[in-house]
Give the backbone structure.
Amino acid sequence: MELPKFHETFMPILKILGTEQSLHHRDLRSRIRETYYSDLPQELLEQKTSTGANTLLDRIGWGMYILKMAKLVQQPTR
């Protein structure tokens, strides 16, 4: 097993956002990890990037960024 690539997070992101009106990005990343990737081994779930960030949450963040740039999702103003 391996962690999903950032582009493999597109569908989980869109599915979660399709059921919610609005979610804070931290809540969205957590919900995606719990719903779609909780069956991954613990060492993969705890894997860190070279900067110390959680790799899975980082990839979900990049997936959200790409979808936002493609105008497939909206990020509300603060």
Observations:
- The chain has four helices and no strands.
- Helices lie at 10-19, 25-36, 42-45, 55-69.
